[in-house]
Specification:
heterodimer; A: globular; B: mainly alpha; two-stranded antiparallel sheet; about 35% helix
Chain lengths: ~475, ~200
């Protein structure tokens, strides 16, 4: 093996470490989420097993942390480690550092998760872990981010521009957001209301300026490659990009209703959310023609299926947020389960589906392996999408009913809890389905990586389609 | 588009979000001062005791914020005031001494901004923490027995022991964390007027 191929292999191992770990975190997060929903549905469970680390108040932040930092965060970084050298054409050097960075990321997730379960969360929005975990995340991100950005500037003028722009923004947003939040929230004596504003800004940075742009990198890079079509309008794409990064940091303010956040900031949050949706529509206008008339191909190519579901979930998530930000709706649905619906749409729908589609498309190229089973691919797709659809709609309806009931002072608390039960039952079914799908995916992933079975689906494409579009599929693997 | 130009553009956009919200927010609400109540000669909001500040951390670590909010909303579009969760809406000045400052995003249970005024007896809150159904049979709040210790009772039970039947000579006594949490919950009280939020 030559030294360059050895380095390439180490870089690919780093991506495997991130992806493999992210799948394990997703299984754990899915399991914890089911337990916490069960506790809400059957309060007797908490009484039967009164253990601190098994309590609802610790399971919910732990599962959210695992979903965001563990599953989606490390998964997207792992997939980027495969994609970045293919965008820039420059292979990674210092593969061992990348493996170290990947291991550090998982170490941070592990310590954070253990701390939340054992000692409890810090209660801060999107920052439920201690300073030491932040430090480990920083070091890891420094290593991985340096690896991913290497070569971006050198090859700036060739190839699609939009994925690079989103990548650049996302890679800047994470350290800037986390660093500033850490300083304001834990190193300075900022007054309480400033702390709350800072939490909202960091939450916006984390979700809308880091994770969302990372997922958009894959949509704008892989969809044109898989469909063989180009994005039609670069100026529109640039406009959407500028709008995304200008307004993304303001979105969480629209979640606040009265309380410690000044009124003008809440109004600015509402306007930002509505305008952000216009940017999403702009991206939708660019992405839709890529998929138009490609239904047969989408049916046959599982990677394309997941990416198109992800693209739809992207539009749905921000349409839902725009709907929630309308003044009358916001006052009714504040402090209800609609926030869980938003999280499901964003994490499981948009980010999760884009990540899964990217893994299906990129892993065979990275490891020169194929997927071992067509039925497992089908199971994974249907369980995951049905699961997230059922969960999101259950939480959305539960939140709306809950909000309407909270608005009526004549409805007592116990009645509102009983209103939620049917929705929690269906949400539980949805979460169970998602977990079954994810188990199928993990079986596929690990059996592929470990080469346990012979390959039957080389590119996650059902047999008939390979003959139809070999060039389109081949492009990203070259 | 050149990479340096894109980099500068992104950096400015991110800076715009931070300066627009955190820096201006700091100027607007970060410099708020407590107000002197001329009748009582105390400042409002009151500075919480050290025990209550420890309790705020217990409140955060136990994840109470997953089910309880800490923000009473005004009369428009919400029933918080009608439900008796406070005599006025919460305003930025109320959070001056909160550390960590939490608002919450879900209400499975009631808002706790004014719980210190609603439940004045600390023993009642203590019992709710140990076993919520002993106080409210329909409560969905989970019990927190790990915040309590079982100790051998002497001839008499300790003063702060929970009023439960002693089994095997063992009494149930709140730990330091439980006492701190109760002190914090008792400190949550919006029963004072502020210039921007008079009592109704």
């Amino acid at each position: 093996m030559t030294s360059s191929s050895a380095t390439h292999s180490k870089a690919s191992s780093a991506s495997l470490v991130l992806l493999g770990g992210s799948i394990i975190w997703s299984l754990l997060a899915g399991g914890l989420q089911i337990i916490s929903t069960l506790q809400l549905l059957i309060p007797l469970l908490s009484r039967l097993l009164p253990i601190s680390f098994f309590s609802y108040g610790r399971l919910v932040p732990a599962s959210t942390f695992l979903l965001t930092y563990g599953w989606v965060g490390s998964g997207l970084l792992g997939a980027l480690l495969i994609l970045a050298p293919r965008i820039s054409g420059i292979p990674f050097r210092y593969g061992r550092f990348l493996i170290g960075g990947a291991l550090l990321w998982h170490l941070a997730v592990l310590i954070g998760f253990t701390q939340i379960l054992w000692e409890g969360s810090t209660g801060l929005l999107s920052l439920p872990y201690s300073r030491s975990v932040t430090a480990v995340f920083f070091v890891s991100f420094l290593i991985l981010g340096t690896g991913i950005t290497r070569g971006l500037g050198g090859t700036w003028k060739s190839g699609p521009l939009l994925p690079r722009l989103y990548l650049l923004g996302a890679l800047l947003a994470f350290p800037l957001g986390l660093g500033t939040a850490e300083i304001v929230l834990r190193h300075s004596q900022a007054p309480g209301s400033v702390q709350i504003i800072t939490q909202l800004v960091w939450n916006s940075f984390f979700n809308h300026l880091w994770l969302t742009p990372l997922a958009l990198v894959f949509l704008f890079q892989l969809l044109p490659s898989l469909t063989g079509r180009a994005v039609s309008s670069l100026p529109l794409g640039l406009l959407a990009w500028v709008t995304t990064f200008t307004l993304g940091g303001w979105l969480s303010n629209s979640l606040a209703s009265d309380g410690p956040v000044p009124a003008w900031m809440q109004s600015a949050g509402v306007i930002a959310t509505l305008l952000f949706f216009v940017a999403v529509l702009g991206n939708g206008v660019l992405l839709r023609p890529l998929l138009e008339g490609k239904m047969d191909e989408i049916r046959r190519n599982v990677a394309l299926r997941f990416l198109s579901v992800g693209a739809w979930a992207y539009a749905s998530t921000y349409a839902w947020l725009a709907f929630l930000s309308f003044p009358g709706v916001r006052q009714t649905t504040a402090f209800t389960m609609v926030s869980s619906a938003t999280q499901t749409l964003l994490c499981f729908g948009f980010l999760g589906c884009v990540l899964t589609g990217s893994i299906y498309a990129l892993l065979p190229a990275s490891r020169n392996v194929g997927w071992p089973s067509h039925p497992a691919l089908t199971w994974h797709f249907w369980c995951t999408t049905l699961g997230l659809g059922i969960t999101a709609s259950s939480y959305a309806l539960a939140g709306i009913f809950q909000g309407l009931a909270w608005s009526d002072p004549g409805v007592p608390l116990s009645t509102i809890s009983s209103y939620l039960r049917p929705f929690l039952c269906t949400a539980l079914v949805g979460q169970g389905l998602w977990l079954v799908g994810q188990i199928a995916f993990s079986a596929l992933f690990f059996s592929t990586v470990l080469k346990l079975f012979p390959t039957t689906a080389p590119w996650a494409v059902f047999p008939t389609s390979i003959a139809d579009h070999p060039d389109a599929v081949q492009e990203i693997y070259s | 588009m050149r990479s340096t130009r894109a980099l500068i553009l992104v950096f400015l956009a991110l800076l715009f979000a931070w300066i627009g919200q955190v820096a201006i927010g700091y100027i607007q609400v970060g410099r708020l001062e407590p107000v002197l109540n001329e009748e009582t000669n105390y400042t409002e909001p009151p500075v919480p005791s050290g025990l209550a500040q420890t309790g705020a951390r217990v409140f955060a670590s136990e994840g109470c914020i997953e089910c309880h909010s800490l923000s009473v909303r005004g009369p428009i579009g919400s029933s918080d005031l009608t439900r008796g969760w406070g005599q006025r809406r919460s305003v930025p000045r109320d959070y001056l001494f909160r550390e960590p400052a939490l608002v919450g995003f879900s209400r499975i249970g009631p808002d706790l901004s004014n719980i210190g005024e609603r439940i004045k007896d600390p023993a009642e809150i203590m019992m709710h923490l140990y076993d919520p159904r002993k106080r409210k049979p329909a409560s969905t709040c989970p019990p927190h027995p790990w915040l309590f210790e079982k100790r051998i009772a002497g001839p008499r039970t300790e003063n702060d022991a929970l009023p439960l039947t002693t089994i095997n000579w063992k009494q149930t006594v709140p730990s330091y964390s439980a006492k701190a949490l109760v002190a914090y919950l008792q400190s949550l009280n919006l029963n004072y007027a502020l210039p921007e939020a008079p009592l109704k």
